[in-house]
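Lab notebook, bench 4. The sequencing result for the construct came back, and we need a structural model before the next group meeting so we can plan mutations. Quick request posted to the team channel:

Model the 3D structure of this chain.
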Amino acid sequence: MNSRAESEPLVRVGIGGLGAIGLKTARALDAGNILGMSLAAVSARDIDKAKRNMADFKRQVPIVKLNELADHADIVVECAPSSVFRDVAVATLEAGKTFIPISVGGLLINDDLQALAKKNNARIVVPTGALIALDAVRAAAEGVIHSVTMVTRKPPAGLEGAPYIVENKIDLGAIKEPTKIFDGSARDGAKGFPANVNVAAALSLAGIGPDKTVLQIWADPTVDRNIQHFEVDADSASFEATIKNIPSDENIKTGRITALSVIAALRGLTSPFKVGS
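Done. Here's the predicted structure in token form:
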């Protein structure tokens, strides 16, 4: 028998943004490493740079505007700055397509997107490979979860430019020991640190929601990795987990595992065998 890729039309994927995450995902698609899927289009702020990065691709695809990706693709992967999150999300969902966001925190401050997806028979798929034990959280949420707390520790430089840091005039360069700089809800964390709390956002969506999920953010000059630790207390189990993500070479704010998480999420949509819920 022929494989699915040979007997059925390939699922078309559009990539919004060709940074550390988007480019690695695009290369996996172009190489044919994701069964049943193909790269259909990309979007990038620097078109010339995008062309150079894709010069060795097996198949050249169009470079379009973010809100045009859904015209070319069945699935749109958002790897763009958080400031344009809503533009690509709305365009994708209104077109009835599948939307895979990397800026997961954007879902916490755009409450209407889930309703928009339902209205248009679209789908939002959150990649969660960068968050350990999420299947257990989702399972616990089928019962009663009493509390969820996440503690994020990052090198101070990894928090530069966050709105919360700027508004509160926090001098990250002056931090010489582990310092807690935020303690609040996951929703407020998403507003203050849109590029830093996507893991916490995914945790809150899988568990008891962004307003009940407690988030602490520490600037810690003693660590060289992005460390996420969370604890869950539920009627079915109590558990905790820690993951130490190695920052990518291209962007200290992004863990290397994040791009791999996107590839795994895409593979899970078409693979004939999948482990995990």
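The CA atoms of residues 194 and 215 lie 13 Å apart.
Will bring this to the meeting.
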